[in-house]
Amino acid sequence: MKLSSLQLARYQYQPKLPGMLRNGISEICVKVGEPTQSVADQEKIQALFPNTYGKNEITFQKGANTSEAKKQVVGVILSGGQAPGGHNVICGLYDALKATNKENILYGFKGGPSGLLEDSYVIFDDAYINSYRNTGGFDIIGSGRTKLETEEQFAVVAEVCKKHGITAIVIIGGDDSNTNAAVLAEYFAAHNTGVQVIGCPKTIDGDLKNEDIECSFGFDTATKTYAEIVGNIERDANSAKKYWHFVKVMGRSASHVALETALQTQPNICLIGEEVAAKKMSLAQITDYIADSVAARAAKGWNFGVAIIPEGIVEFVPEFSVLIAEINELLAGNKADAFNALPTWEDKYAFIKAGLTEASMAVFEILPQAIQQQLFLERDPHGNVQVSLIESEKLFSAMVKENLAARKKAGTYNGKFSPLHHFLGYEGRCAFPSNFDADYCYSLGYNAFMLIQYGFNGYLSKVSNLSKPAEEWVAGGMPITKMMNIERRHGHDKPVIRKALVELDGKPFKFFESKREEWAVETCYVYPGAIQYFGPAEVCDLTTRTLALEKA
Amino acid sequence: MKLSSLQLARYQYQPKLPGMLRNGISEICVKVGEPTQSVADQEKIQALFPNTYGKNEITFQKGANTSEAKKQVVGVILSGGQAPGGHNVICGLYDALKATNKENILYGFKGGPSGLLEDSYVIFDDAYINSYRNTGGFDIIGSGRTKLETEEQFAVVAEVCKKHGITAIVIIGGDDSNTNAAVLAEYFAAHNTGVQVIGCPKTIDGDLKNEDIECSFGFDTATKTYAEIVGNIERDANSAKKYWHFVKVMGRSASHVALETALQTQPNICLIGEEVAAKKMSLAQITDYIADSVAARAAKGWNFGVAIIPEGIVEFVPEFSVLIAEINELLAGNKADAFNALPTWEDKYAFIKAGLTEASMAVFEILPQAIQQQLFLERDPHGNVQVSLIESEKLFSAMVKENLAARKKAGTYNGKFSPLHHFLGYEGRCAFPSNFDADYCYSLGYNAFMLIQYGFNGYLSKVSNLSKPAEEWVAGGMPITKMMNIERRHGHDKPVIRKALVELDGKPFKFFESKREEWAVETCYVYPGAIQYFGPAEVCDLTTRTLALEKA
């Protein structure tokens, strides 16, 4: 098998642990902190988690290891979308497990949670682990999107654990997966299975973040990769001086990725879904906002620019959501048949006009024709509009184009507008983890084993103080129930970890807000370049601007 | 102005010069080589370049500098598309110029060749130059696509040179720009202007390459950037195991970028335009070739893969070119009016069917409807099909989808096929130059000044032996006329530098050919990761696989 020279070099990298985990397994002891309460709905959460609620926060510190000598057999799964550093969580877990007792065993269940249900696994050994150290991807055991949430599934998992003598499961996943980890932990406790569950916070989206989780792993590397590419595109725009680049970035439910990428690269425009929703912005307003920048720059002779558009942006536009709901209603069930039978687009258009409210028709009318047609012609098996297929970067560039044409007629704009489009998502989810993510993930895994070894259940592996050098990081554990509240999901009250949206009064957004007017009109691009692994610490080891601002 | 930490660190990088240029300006002398002949059409080229034809190749070596003491006033332009390292050519040129004589002056003409015609310039000083060292982009003075090729333009350039006392012009560009540099050099010589012209070989496309130019600058960095991204996508494909990624890469007239990216990443499929043309492959054949890989992998349970598609691929398919020519003919002039008046696509389709030959209609019929419509609906102001707008990555994935549906019916395929699409171009043209490109470009610029100082005209700055460490590189100059032949362009015989296509009997293609059957069916992905600037030499300093194979 051929390996890249970088991969070979990265095998040699020794991830940095938090200071209190650096003295060897025999010198790690527990410092018990305060008992915890869930962030909201305490009584309901407590009722749902009678065995795992209210436990104490803990941190590790230097001191004689007092854990029980016991052979540990641990299973680990990767859940959901790829995030750089997942391999290192497993490597850290493995190293701590083997350093504690060579007889300990680590199972990797394949293809995500379904591997646990189907008892599909590998048993890790040194050679296997060594070929994944400090690498990107989830190819070590694969991942999957099956959700572990029903009692039936838990019973199967308990059986599998019993079969292999598994003493603990580590679940590496996002907010839903960690929510489910807490439920599984409670199930195991209630059924006296003796199996512990530990979660690790993963997602490039950055929306698994709260008082206890400073950031989810992968966010640093993914946004650095997107920022590298956006910076390259900015430099190209500023060299060629003739294109406007509309760059869509991943992030359907929160705009952290867009915001962080913007903080690193200072583009002319960056839309933030949470702001669009809070201010109830219309498509026309957003379009006008972008077109203002295009026109102001054109007036300076700069017919180029860069705009970052979060993937899920249109779903944050209230009037657009109403339009989608009306379309879904208009074509529900066999009503679609009459529509589909209409021979021409003009006939269909008349049908639509007759069926939509005036307000929604006004929104529909300002959409470019290609998007109009997409809304009606590409529907899912239930007849619903596939909002996720809407190419928001193309939607806005087309609307800006029309807006500028109107300005040209009115004599208020006299530039050229040539848009180009990009989508950044898959490009960053499997990059080699940055030193930060390599260190953080290795620490999360190492720490997860210490939580197992000390008998904790339903805890999240917690490493904090991340804006400081790794030596100063704090390792410990937090009951997952502490992060939970009750939310309405699919018509049911459900205990979940609250998803972290971009806070409009938070420091990262406030900083962006204070700068964006200048960025829109001037050329303030910053070119971060490719992620570096070997150079000066200020180039290689700093984490996100988001975290730096939050901790400033 | 905010600068990234990488940009600040890269300012400190000292590019490596070829050994013979390392002893200081006073210790560089000329070793005169053989007189040269053009690669073909010698008599015609000689007749067109009476003053600059047949000059000797030269190399530099260590020895007392015997050049005439003379104040040099040099002008430099960047021509055409961005390529990483352009800034370093100018930095090297500036450093050699100032090291020779502090009174020497370097003008940078802005926005490409038009800056020279419009006398729009900056005069470089240390502070200006220092803020662009080892950075990507052409934003130092901008670039442009105006062609310097007429006598009228040359007369204007001569005037501008006279006005500023310019003694030499350095043109940093691709094959056309260097062809024009040779013509300008001849003009200057014939008119006794005393102004010299030196060319530098730039293009990320890799098609400016011949016996004398081992590679054009920027190709290394751009392909490493694309390989980084393709590697990340491969790792994502191999983790998620559910998508086929179709990645289009830049390169309209040659497939060097696609080939190099494939050599670095070992995808399942990489199309090479030159092969498609040589074997007169049909769209159906290409589609079948890709679908074979999809089906073979699906049979192993692998419903994922990565295919690299060169941007210009459809233009290499003979039957497709015929189809385009027929469509252009079918809608030429006012014939388009009748077509445009037809109310529905069905009517238009009947019109098309009646107008195309049977062979072209057969090709047309296998195209996905979206592409069919694009061919007829999106035409340029002359009524011609805009072939460059055709999204070849989507064309092939749609055709593969249909092909697989037929196989499924026939019972020969039973997988899932979910394609995703990417286009990589602007992402790599302005990356921070790799150490190789930083060194190579700085050397090209430094060397260009030495050619000026020694009085050469119509020469290309030549640095060779590039697959070896920089210490062993060979610096010198080659008359541009040596690389020329006569080609038919726009109905006229023209002396031009021959464009280098991928050679199907060359070592890079042969190597690829020997491996691709395995790559198509197995998962042999290589993950190069981000360009590194500070690490071990084997990670940071190696240039392309193409060059390594060519020099092996």
What does this structure look like?
Two copies of one chain form a homodimer. Chain A has 21 helices and 15 strands. With 552 residues, chain A is of the alpha/beta class. In chain A, the strands form three sheets. A nine-stranded mixed beta sheet of chain A has the order 1-2-13-12-7-6-3-4-5, sandwiched between helices. In chain A, strands 9-10-8-11 form a four-stranded parallel beta sheet, sandwiched between helices. In chain A, strands 14-15 form a two-stranded antiparallel ribbon. In chain A, strand 3, helix 3 (86-100) and strand 4 (105-109) form a beta-alpha-beta unit. Chain A starts with a helix and ends with a helix. At the A-B interface, helix 1, helix 8 and strand 11 of A face helix 1, helix 8 and strand 11 of B.
> With helices defined by DSSP (H or I, 4 residues minimum), what is the helix count of chain A?
21
Please report the two chains with the greatest interface, counting residues with C-beta closer than 8 angstroms to the partner's C-beta.
Answer: A-B, 62 and 62 residues
Mean pLDDT of chain A: 95
Approximately what portion of the residues of chain A adopt beta-strand conformation?
15-25%
The strand line-up of the biggest sheet of chain A is 1-2-13-12-7-6-3-4-5
- Multimerization state: homodimer
Query: Globular, elongated, flat, extended or rod-shaped: what is the shape of chain A?
Result: globular
Largest sheet of chain A: 9 strands, mixed
Spatial extent as radius of gyration of chain A: 25 Å
Number of strands of chain A: 15
Strand-pairing-aware structural class of chain A: alpha/beta
> Residue share in helices of chain A?
40-55%
Q: How far apart are the first and last residues' alpha carbons of chain A, in Å? A: 46 Å
Low-confidence blocks of residues of chain A:
none
